[in-house]
Amino acid sequence: MQTPAVLDNDESETREKTASLSAEHRGAHPLHAAKRVTHQPEHTETLVLQTLRRSSALERSSLTSTVSFDVEEAERFEQAREEVDFYRNRLRSMHFKGQERFDDKVRRAEAKAACSMLREALDIRNKYCMRVDRMNNKSPSNEADAFNMADMPCAAPEFGFSMVNGVFELRNLRDEAAPVVSAISLGDYVRDYHRIEDICSSGPVKTYSYHRLKVLEYKYDMHMLANELLEVAATKSDPQDFSTVIKVDTHIHLAAGMTASHLLDFIKAKAASDPEVMQLLTRLSMSPEDLTINSLDVMAENTFQRFDNFNNHYNPFGLGEARTMFLKSENANKGRFFAEITRELFEQAELSKSIKTEYRISIYGRKLSEWSDLAAWVVDFKLFSPSNRWMVQVPRLYDTFKKLGSFADFQQLLEHIFRPLFEVTLNPESNPKLHLFLKLVSGFDIVDDESKLEPKIDAMPPSADKWNSAENPPYFYWMYYMWANIYVLNKFREARGFNTFDFRPHGGESGDVNHLSACFLLARNISHGVNLNRSTSLQYLFYLAQIGIAMSPLSNNSLFIDYKRNPFPFYFKRGLHVSLSTDDPLQFHLTQTPLIEEYSIAAKRWNLNDGDLSEIARNSVYQSGFTHDRLVEWLGPNYNEPGHHGNDINHTNVSSIRVAFRAESMRSEFDLMRATLEKERPQYPSRITWVGLKGPDPFVAEEVRTALLVQQGLRLRDKYQLPPSSNFRSEPPPPDGTLPPRSQHVCRNRDGVFHVYHDHRILCGNDVDNVATVRCPQCALDLCPECDRVFHMSPAKKAHSRVSIAAGQALFDVITVDEFRADYNFMELVRADPPTRSVTARRLKMNDLTFQMHAILNEQIEARTMKNFKKDFYTVAKVDTHVHIGACPTSVHLLNFMKQKFQTESKVVVQHETGTENGAKIARSVTLGEVFARLKVPLENFTLDSLDVKASDTFNRYDRFRAKYNPLGCSDLRSIFLKKDNHIQGRYFAQLVKEVAADLEASRFTFAEYRISVHGLKRQEWSNLAAWVFDNEILSEHIRLVVQVPRNYHVFRDSGDIRCFQDMLDNIFMPLFEVTLNPASDPRLFRLLPLISGFDSVDDESSCTQRGWDAELPLPKDWTTFENPPYSYYLYYMWANIYSLNRLRQVRGLSTFDFRPHSGVAGSRSHLCSAFLLGKSISHGINLSQEPAIQYLYYLAQVGISVSPLGEDALYRKYDDNPFIEFFRIGLNVSLSSDNPLLLHVTDNPLLEEYSTAAKMWRLTLCDLAELARNSVLQSGFSHEFKQHWLGCNYTVPGVNGNDEGKTGVTNIRVHFRHEVLSNEHRHLNAMVENFGHQFLDQSLLGPPKAKQPPSLDTPDEVDIGVDRRAPPAIVVDDPDDQRPAPLAHESSAQLPAPKPFFGVNKPSRSSIQLEASTNDVAAGVEVGAGRQLRQEPSTDKAVVLACGIAIGVASVLATVLLLRRPS
Known about the structure:
Blueprint: H1 11-27, H2 41-46, H3 71-89, H4 105-128, H5 143-146, E1 159-164, E2 167-172, H6 186-200, H7 203-236, E3 247-253, H8 260-273, H9 275-283, H10 293-296, H11 307-312, H12 320-327, H13 336-352, E4 355-362, H14 370-380, E5 388-395, H15 398-403, H16 410-426, H17 432-438, E6 441-447, H18 475-496, E7 502-503, E8 506-507, H19 515-522, E9 525-528, H20 536-545, E10 548-551, H21 553-559, H22 568-574, E11 578-580, H23 585-588, H24 594-606, H25 610-623, H26 628-635, H27 649-652, H28 656-678, E12 687-688, H29 698-719, E13 746-750, E14 753-757, E15 774-776, E16 781-783, H30 785-791, H31 795-798, E17 803-804, H32 817-832, H33 834-866, E18 878-884, H34 891-904, E19 909-917, E20 920-927, H35 928-935, H36 944-947, H37 958-963, H38 971-977, H39 987-1003, E21 1006-1013, H40 1020-1031, E22 1039-1046, H41 1049-1055, H42 1061-1077, H43 1083-1088, E23 1092-1098, H44 1127-1147, E24 1154-1155, E25 1158-1159, H45 1167-1174, E26 1177-1180, H46 1188-1197, E27 1200-1203, H47 1205-1211, H48 1220-1226, E28 1230-1232, H49 1237-1240, H50 1246-1258, H51 1262-1275, H52 1280-1287, ...
Parallel strand pairs: 3-4, 4-5, 5-6, 6-7, 8-9, 9-10, 10-11, 18-21, 21-22, 22-23, 23-24, 25-26, 26-27, 27-28, 30-31
Antiparallel strand pairs: 1-2, 12-29, 13-14, 15-16, 15-17, 19-20, 32-33
């Protein structure tokens, strides 16, 4: 760690030090050593450095495995970094018209004030920094050298010293004109200390610091996503690993430096040879054989928040006498036992070779002779090790020793501590042992329980000579007098050419957070520092000053903060100079290498890799007080140079990529601060250059493989979506409008799917339900195969000459079930492919971090921008896209409705039941009053508790959840009040729904799409539904319907209502085809269909048949078993018939339907694959969190996901574990819905309750909520006119031109951010394939090469983007030359550029990928993963299928995608 130079009273030296500090933090970036590039601060702030684009492989072209930087590499690295900054992240600047951050007066004023105060704080600290020059100090190489008393330096009579007001002053007795060397006065220190407190409590500073710390954290996460594999590769080529690099335990107390088992073994050994120890054990009534760790009683138990108990555990066997005997240097045997166990500790460290220590030993200040006694103990027992330096700790026990009469005032305590040091510095011969001991000392520490109450001092505190009360001085007072005397002592020793000392106190372990203000001013390093987490201002200042923090999580876990809440991982990510230390192995550790134990637990708990551990170890060496020659040996000859130039990977095992990143992050913070204060505007590069790979790269292999698979997955989904012209749904016609004429088209079922034909002439002459395939001239008939077989069974007709005829051509081709099965299996490959999962997980995490970075940088701007909108979240349209109509009223609403009906309509007949009377069956009517009377619940006891519809005790119990639909546990009440098919024709249910609709209309801005069931039990269901809707006038502008089809085939088959799965499909879809062809056949149903948005497939996913599609399944007409078909089987036949119906309705100019199934809430995660291919959007989808590859595809395709966190909390995923917030940050097209208000919600607006809960739980801003509301409108099936009214006329246009801020309430900042990040992902995939795909695919298979395209950011050519350096880039939408934006799923493809060809091959319209094992590739020695050459499969009459060779071997998986050709 580079320590700022000390600032003297001399003004010139102060200027010199300030310049040095500035150079250290700002001007010494490693990448600019040869070529100084002006790096603009705003650019650095909003872009996330080179780390955002690992997948573009830019860094790899300039970083070799050894990571050695020369001039050319530095220039190329900087060039690549600038490109990535602009190309990948220019949106992060968010420069909009009138919305530039640096033109925002309020924010700029706050930022400037914060930067000014932060710089002031750093300048104040500079006054107190002490130079500790180790360049000329050398460590003794052996014991004889360390304790050699020959050639003792002589006295220096020209110097004189005296203590004034508690601080020593140094004078030159021979030159009266020479200035007196003294420390900053107590008064100045107190003023500076309070100024630091004021700065840290300032609102602007806290806000600024918090934002900057979060940015640093996100930068690190981005860096790791981008470069972790590079760092690992770099460290593999060096001779070190974490186990061999030097690690210094900079905070370990000697009296607890051994483990409990070590101390126990030592005591047992001494008991066998020393009578004194046996006498002690005899008094304890114990023998050596009886001694155990439990009886030793030194492990930290019952110590949390109890520092007194913790101190008591220093006493072995609970005896202070045992502590004095074994763990103190002052006792009857002159510390012999303590010295012997110390030597054993030294031997352990020397054997490990990589572990060094700085043991802390106490000086209390009780008497002047303490130093002589301590030095004699060290020297006499030869306590020297090249692996150890000493730290002297001063316990803050003034009050304790004052009561014992050890001194009269605080100044006398300071005299006892420092006078012997000044005397031996003046004349080493006066105390040779002390002089030798001080050569082995690194620095000073002050220790004690920080949580103790301290005296409050509002005015200037008295000087040390006047502090004579029995009360212990406060922490900041101790800190000043320790620092001031060390400062003068260091000046004295520096003048004499002796080693100097650090000041490294315990600070921030507990107690007042302002202790850390004093540490910031005075300390070089501190121990613990966990309380920095309570002050973002101080934490940021510690980062800027790079003050070392030796943390001990295991110690903190036993005393003050749980391990899982320890802030160490956050400090490390943000770049604070942290290291790990053991503190007290005697009480906390079990192994004989406590420091390694500390590292090991941290690595496991916080997922630290070897590179992280090596960086922490490197930090510990910098924080230590070891001499220059040791640091050269351990870190390399250039260790004191900043940035990567000071890193030698062959010594540290830390990649220069990591060190360069840390230096760049630090420099960018100072650049930003300087620019804010100097009112500089950011500059942007006017030219960028793609820096490509020079050869195969295994990392790129995975990236390109993933790009190929993902792009093919997107292509497959496109096959299943309706043409663009069907994207717009118009408002339904008026009920009394004229019906369209009957169509000449006919529809017939073929293999479970209804197909539409031009007319009836293609039908079988005997069975018009089938299509003719055989012509018999003698019979003069065209027959289907079954009729042909029956007609020609007789011998007379067997001789008829029959000819085959082509089956009538359907108007629309529907993808066959076999083709879907192949596509589904391909999606399963993508889902399970390990490289794809790894790469997509990184891409998703990168987008998550990018959004969090955006939020930190732009949240305030978005909030201020929204203040000027005409709309807010409460007045923008919100659609509840997933709510079941049978549970649309809340429990309170239903309770009041049932009470009212019971009071006013108790005599209404609500059902009939069959009974017997005199042995004869009779039917009797049952009134509503009788139904309630049977429940034996009086009206006054009719409460929400007795209603019992709230979802409690339903987690992972779908059966209990469904049972809650029955009010009072009575299915009859559900049938009466919550169903449309009952004795009263659903009148009560209709009234309830109309009341809920009235509430929606009253809210004005809330809309709903109610899911209502059609079971497929009988064909009359559709007519009954239409009659119920129109007879009860359930029509509202705020309501649309979604028809849900429960997956209940097995139930109906078991009851005998249907014979096969085809019967269920016929019951669902035949009425729809018939009414579409002939509206007059059912006018009410025809008028109902425009009110229906789409279809859903519902049921408990966890109970779905686990049967896969590895082999063919029976067609629907042949599915006659009692087993329920698999989920994907259901979805395909639902989709295929909806698709065919939509194409027919499209031709007739009628509304179409979306397919929006329930998917991914439970059960197999394979469900998400079929839903991705077939669904326009889905409900729930929470299982996507466990499938990164499929989640990434959902993101790229912007498949809508309607999440219901409260519903999922009741069944499958607790609210805190719900991945909704991760989906939202990543940019998936998510919305919130209520699902089951009856069971889940309390308020009278369930959708707002969902939004409110999410906002509170996940701290969503109003802009976040408005974005979710906008998503819900886009996902909904409301009409084009509706969406134009609520979102703006151009809502289908991508980017900001499609966003009307005045209608959506979403800022253009947010919309542009989302669109640009999504476009970047698509550009990234194209770049991977186009720039590196030749290493994986045989270009000769792809036809003639593409013509030269105009330069764009997608090509590897140098591109002039024409950005004026004086102004930020403007946002241009619908630029005809811009090929980059990728279409969003909810936006019209007609409005967007055509998708780019996939590697020179046009998009296949209807093809599938077949996966098969290719052992020939293995035998031929095909290279695994990268550079694999593929061979073309023979073409067929249909689409050419180019297979992806998969061979799972012992060592690897061979898999690369071949492309598909367009059908001939």
